Amino acid sequence: MNTITTAQLNKVSELIGTTDKNAVFAVVLKTLTSAGIAANVAFDMLFGDGAFEKFAGDLHEALNA
Is 41 a member of any domain? Predict the structure, then answer.
């Protein structure tokens, strides 16, 4: 799986004119999913292999606590 690099994230930051990481992550996720990449795959591309599964598990536990 391709992983989004720091250089690529910095380029997105430059293109959208902000260093707000949340904004950069949102733009990257939106761009990838708009290009037809599944949300879980896009999430893993941005945050690393297995990140979506961990996030989903943590969210599930928090909602059921």
Answer: yes
